[in-house]
Design goal:
The chain is 44% helix and 15% strand. It has 305 residues and is an alpha/beta fold. A six-stranded parallel beta sheet has the order 1-11-8-7-5-6. Helix 1 runs parallel beside helix 12 (283-302). The protein is globular and about 55 Å long. The structure holds NADPH dihydro-nicotinamide-adenine-dinucleotide phosphate.
């Protein structure tokens, strides 16, 4: 039987409604400052949709756009100003930053109480210890998704493929705190398929187009695809998708020269998995929804609510 769809758009809407309701109930206006350095088109789109979502939910938002040649010192000065700005509860510095900027110094300069991306060492440390913290949005969104569809986590064997600071590591910790048995895989893992085939839950956060195929998946497993990659050839699309999606994607390719795909190959995985996230429409929308939730949470914590 084909896998059922874990619909990230639906869950993201649910989270956003929850945030909007709480904001209006509290009568506060949580504020998010989004900082964008340079003119990377993808980053511009991300920041734009984050700001727009804030407005839709009744949050205050401001966009700070700096030129590509901004120095670390200049960016630190802005972060410092935002740290001291009472109207701002959350600060988001859009990554990646231009090469001349010391990203680590910038992330560590953000007040941990306003670190709505959950990247600061203080918040990562609290996450490790299972204490109340602002947690990275993408992995936190994956937990919301699993909970929404009542996928049991406690006791499940979860295999996380990818060990980045922003997805793989925090994802593994969140699953561990929810009592999953967690295995973390990465580029040096030997016989990846033998390990992922033992999983009840597979989280793919690799950044490699459709690398996880049906051979990697045990019958009935839950598969969450975090990957966001561009497929740019007809050959790739034909391998990744079955009909009718294949035709749709080939049309997108013909029009735009690329189509968004994940780290999972739906054509083969859908035959094995019990649940699968689509790309787009899976994890992506949850990341923004969780950013809104983190901004609200930061606002509540700063006001002692
Ligand atoms: P990184 O490049 O930081 O990390 C990728 C991880 O995958 C690394 O740990 C790497 O291992 C591992 N890896 C690479 N190749 C292999 C392989 N052949 N076998 C096993 N593991 C491998 O990426 P991110 O974590 O930042 O992002 C992962 C994906 O998720 C990307 O496609 C990104 O675009 C997407 N993403 C999506 C978001 C969303 O909102 N949906 C948000 C954030 C990311 P090693 O550590 O050994 O190098």
């Amino acid at each position: 039987m084909a896998a059922q769809v874990l619909n990230g758009v639906e869950v993201a809407d649910h989270i956003k409604q929850r945030v909007a309701a709480r904001v209006s109930e509290l009568g506060i206006k949580p504020g998010l400052a989004a900082v964008l350095v340079g003119d990377d088109p993808a980053s511009k789109v991300y920041v734009g949709s984050k700001v727009k979502t804030c407005e839709a939910l009744g949050l205050h938002s401001e966009k700070h756009e700096l030129p590509a040649e901004t120095t670390t010192e200049e960016l630190l000065a802005l972060v410092d100003r935002l740290n001291r700005d009472a109207a701002i509860d959350g600060i988001l510095v859009q990554m990646p930053l231009p090469k001349q900027i010391d990203s680590r110094r910038i992330l560590e300069a953000v007040d941990p109480a306003k670190d709505v991306d959950g990247f600061h060492a203080v918040n990562v440390g609290k996450l490790v210890q299972g204490r109340d913290a602002l947690v990275a949005c993408t992995p936190a969104g994956v937990i919301e998704l699993l909970d929404y569809y009542k996928i049991p986590i406690a006791g499940a064997h979860a295999v996380v493929v990818g060990r980045s600071d922003i997805v793989g590591k925090p994802m593994s910790l969140l699953l561990l705190h929810r009592h999953a048995t967690v295995t973390i895989c990465h580029s040096k893992t030997k016989d990846l398929a033998a390990i992922t085939r033992q999983a009840d839950i597979v989280i793919a956060a690799i950044g490699r187009t459709a690398m996880i195929t049906g051979d990697h998946i045990r019958e009935g497993a839950v598969v969450v695809d975090v990957g966001m990659n561009d497929a740019t050839s007809e050959e790739e699309i034909t391998r990744i998708f079955a009909e009718p999606e294949r035709t749709k994607r080939l049309e997108v390719l013909a029009k735009r020269g690329r189509t968004l795909v994940g780290d999972v190959e739906p054509r083969t995985v859908v035959e094995k998995a019990s649940w699968l996230t689509p790309v787009p429409g899976g994890v992506g929308p949850l990341t923004i929804a969780m950013l809104m939730q983190n901004t609200l949470r930061a606002a509540e914590m700063r006001r002692g609510l």
